[in-house]
Design the sequence.
């Protein structure tokens, strides 16, 4: 097979996009597709300030790299959750990358700010650690981006993440979560616009980009990921894909174009969560009186985790 761009021998064949490319041309293809995704979905408008939530993993580091390289007003935000043997390594990768590329970086230290690291909180848990972590990251990234005047909060979620998220929510019949699985969520006064510019790329496609562009990333696994059901379902989908190539794509894109809009419409008509209020303790947006993060960190609410 020949590279679609230069005609030389192709190194990478992307069945989903029906294209073969050489390593030299692959970054151009990847960057063009990211730009098209941003433009088509109106994710980032002219002059908007983008805050990229980075974990130190391949997806968010690739996103930070591509946005900076293509000229967006890009900054980075890292939440150090205090996961021993993991958080500090991710932080190191992010700090040195941002310094080298002159990217403003905000680091939020959970233990310093809230008095407890995730490792400690997870010992008191009733809820799964990854679910607590997700709740904390969602609120803090939004708050920091909003308070620092960013217009857009970008995350590195890719198609494989979207598939597993959808599948988990289907298993739980969570129509409200399914209705919010979109590449872009509009903002409001308390919520910053959220975008996922890599939502059309697979795990493998972002890994190729990160490796060809020599983007440093931390490849280790979070010690808590063993407990995550998402890890199990990711593996399950990959083994299914080996037996039935193309199944991930046909299921995910078929669902997202044909069924998700119907569920979204239904969910907007019957949403029982009511209006967004401000948490009585911290003032952050919530559908209840006290937000889930305050429930996690308040002394009395340890049992409420
Ligand atoms: P995960 O929740 O680990 O699947 O990560 C999904 C996305 O959330 C990543 O691609 C990042 O954009 C963002 N993210 C994950 N962990 C962090 C973190 N510790 N700090 C900031 N952003 C994060
Ligand atoms: Zn609160």
Sequence:
């Amino acid at each position: 097979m020949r590279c679609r761009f230069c005609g030389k021998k192709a190194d990478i064949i992307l069945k989903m996009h029906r294209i073969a490319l050489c390593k030299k041309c692959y970054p151009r293809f990847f960057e063009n597709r990211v730009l098209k995704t941003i433009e088509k979905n109106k994710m980032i408008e002219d002059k908007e300030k983008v805050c990229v939530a980075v974990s130190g993993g391949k997806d968010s580091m690739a996103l930070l790299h591509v946005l900076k390289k293509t000229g967006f007003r890009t900054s980075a935000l890292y939440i150090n959750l205090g996961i021993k043997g993991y958080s500090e390594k991710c932080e190191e990768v992010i700090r040195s990358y941002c310094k080298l590329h002159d990217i403003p970086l905000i680091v939020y230290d959970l233990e310093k700010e809230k008095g407890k690291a995730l490792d400690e909180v997870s010992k008191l848990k009733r809820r799964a650690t990854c679910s607590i972590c997700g709740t904390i990251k969602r609120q803090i990234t939004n708050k920091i981006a909003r308070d620092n005047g960013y217009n857009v909060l970008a995350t590195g979620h890719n198609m494989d993440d979207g598939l597993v998220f959808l599948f988990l929510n289907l298993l739980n019949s969570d129509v409200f979560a399914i209705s919010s699985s979109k590449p872009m969520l509009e903002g409001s006064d308390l919520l910053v616009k959220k975008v996922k510019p890599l939502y059309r790329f697979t795990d493998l496609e972002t890994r190729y980009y990160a490796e060809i562009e020599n983007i440093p990333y931390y490849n280790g696994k979070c010690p808590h990921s063993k407990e995550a059901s998402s890890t199990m379902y990711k593996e399950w989908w990959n083994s299914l894909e080996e037996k039935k190539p193309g199944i991930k794509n046909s299921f995910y894109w078929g669902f997202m174009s044909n069924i998700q809009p119907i569920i979204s419409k239904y969910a907007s008509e019957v949403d029982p969560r009511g209006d967004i209020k401000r948490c009585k303790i911290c003032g952050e947006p919530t559908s209840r009186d006290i937000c889930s993060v305050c429930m996690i960190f308040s002394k009395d609410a340890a049992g409420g985790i």
Observations:
- The pocket of zinc ion (ligand 2) is lined by residues 279, 281-282, 284, 290-291, 293-294 (CB under 6 Å).
